[in-house]
């Protein structure tokens, strides 16, 4: 009987509720285990016993953010940069992104990008021209801007049939984001900039240069509004094109001109139906200026960061539901790590940019897993997930939103979901966007599940 005990335990594990569920694919969703009711945030919020309990208050979040900048090497404290940046600091930043590609690349029409064209793109990064030392210049981003691995807008795909993942696309910057200029492209049209969460190439036209104190002080201006919708827009104004219909994404903080006289028009329009905000603009010579703009009161914003509660985490995540997947914030959207970052940013929490950095950041409550960890341990961990927990597999991050009969569910920005039917047939839904799904039936490849490949769980909570 003693010899049979381990076998009995293994059978009990295999037949546990999480594993033994009779999964179905509802006709009205086409995704395994997802009913239409589960596509509403209220479904998940209503299941929580303490949905509105504050997980971290503003003071705790401030300490958490300070910890991120102190411990996480992927984050950059711009205020701590020296007055001049030496080549020994700048060159590794540039070379990390702009070294010659080793694999073949294809353009948007599926044609191979020839070697001469690739060489010209690499040469434009001008690594050899990085100055021995360069005065650190500062600027504010004036509208949403792509961050690129090379100083080019040429898209580059890994295969002739790929149109989704541009390998030169890295991330995005948003209006009011501060940057430090570290290097310039050979053609003089791009800057290699360092932002708090990433360092990459941006077109000069997206950045207005100003003095250090003005640039870094912009994020501290009060009062302010926090964008809580997936994206909002300023009103159209022909009088001030630079701030007309400007897109502001979730978590962006904009100063409010609270003392603006209510009877004075803002760019030709009375402002009583809007918040009068202040936005950075770029003068013709590239210098920084500021302009008033109108942000309609009907747009989802808040006078402060939202409280960090499980209910708010779920509601904010669902604001992106169905948005098209955008690798590196491409397609005017975001990818898996950008998605979770912006949800948390609306509550004042700062995360590293990429999954590779988020997953191992020493600044959070990290649970690390290795290939030696048993499936039993992994299932026990996923059964204990709380809304807002971040689950990492190689190249991807998911956010826990709750459980149904012991099954953990997640929301994530993904190109697609794979699973096996009861008869073992492989199935795939090309969701290509922000998606709700159960966790345990998802397959990483032909033989391993997502659960098998979890590398880390990060908990943004005590």
UniProtKB/TrEMBL annotation:
Top-rank lineage group of the source organism: Bacteria
SUPFAM superfamilies: Cysteine proteinases (SSF54001)
InterPro entries: NLP_P60_dom, P60_peptidase_YkfC, Papain-like_cys_pep_sf, Peptidase_C40, SH3b1_dom
Keyword Protease: yes
Signal peptide start-end: 1-20
Protein keywords: Hydrolase, Protease, Signal, Thiol protease
Ranges where the NlpC/P60 domain occurs: 307-461
Family note: Belongs to the peptidase C40 family.
UniProt name for this protein: NlpC/P60 domain-containing protein
Species this chain originates from: Cognatilysobacter xinjiangensis
The organism's taxonomic lineage, starting at the top: Bacteria, Pseudomonadati, Pseudomonadota, Gammaproteobacteria, Lysobacterales
């Amino acid at each position: 009987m003693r010899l049979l005990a381990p076998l009995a335990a293994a059978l009990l594990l295999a037949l546990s509720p999480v594993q033994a569920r009779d999964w179905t694919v509802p006709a009205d969703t086409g995704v395994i285990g997802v009913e239409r009711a589960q596509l509403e945030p209220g479904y998940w919020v209503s299941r929580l016993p303490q949905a509105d309990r504050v997980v971290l208050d503003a003071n705790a979040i401030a300490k958490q953010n300070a910890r991120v900048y102190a411990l996480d090497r992927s984050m950059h404290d711009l205020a701590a940069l020296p007055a001049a940046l030496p080549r020994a600091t700048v060159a590794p930043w540039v070379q990390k992104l702009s070294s010659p590609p080793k694999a073949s690349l294809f353009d948007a029409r599926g044609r191979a990008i020839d070697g001469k064209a690739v060489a010209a793109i690499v040469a434009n990064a001008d690594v050899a021209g990085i100055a021995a030392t360069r005065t650190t210049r500062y600027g504010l981003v004036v509208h949403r801007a792509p961050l690129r691995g090379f100083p080019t807008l040429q898209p580059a795909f890994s295969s002739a049939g790929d149109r989704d993942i541009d390998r030169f696309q890295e991330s995005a910057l948003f209006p009011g984001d501060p940057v430090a200029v570290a290097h310039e492209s050979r053609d003089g049209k791009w800057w290699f900039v360092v932002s708090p969460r990433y360092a990459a190439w941006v077109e000069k036209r997206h950045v207005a240069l100003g003095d250090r104190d003005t640039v870094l002080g912009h994020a501290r201006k009060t009062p302010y509004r926090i964008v809580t919708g997936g994206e909002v827009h300023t009103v159209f104004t022909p009088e001030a094109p630079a701030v007309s219909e400007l897109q502001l994404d979730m978590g962006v903080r904009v100063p409010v001109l609270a003392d603006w006289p209510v009877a004075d028009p803002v760019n030709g329009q009375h402002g009583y139906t809007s918040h009068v905000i202040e936005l950075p603009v770029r003068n013709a010579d590239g210098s920084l200026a500021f302009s008033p703009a109108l942000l309609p009161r009907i747009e989802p914003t808040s006078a402060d960061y939202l409280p960090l509660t499980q209910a708010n985490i779920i509601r904010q995540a669902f604001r992106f539901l169905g948005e098209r997947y955008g690798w590196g914030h491409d397609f005017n959207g975001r990818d898996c790590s950008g998605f979770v970052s912006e949800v948390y940013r609306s509550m004042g929490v700062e995360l590293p940019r990429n999954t590779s950095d988020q997953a191992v950041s020493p600044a959070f409550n990290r649970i690390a897993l290795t290939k030696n960890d048993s499936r039993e341990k992994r299932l026990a961990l996923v059964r204990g997930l709380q809304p807002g927990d971040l689950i990492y597999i190689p190249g991807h991050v998911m956010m826990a939103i709750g459980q149904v009969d012991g099954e953990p569910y997640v929301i994530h920005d993904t190109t697609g979901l794979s699973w096996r039917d009861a008869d073992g047939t492989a199935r795939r839904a090309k969701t290509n966007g922000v998606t709700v799904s159960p966790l345990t039936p998802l397959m990483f490849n032909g033989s391993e599940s997502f659960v098998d490949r979890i590398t880390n769980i990060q908990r943004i909570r005590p």
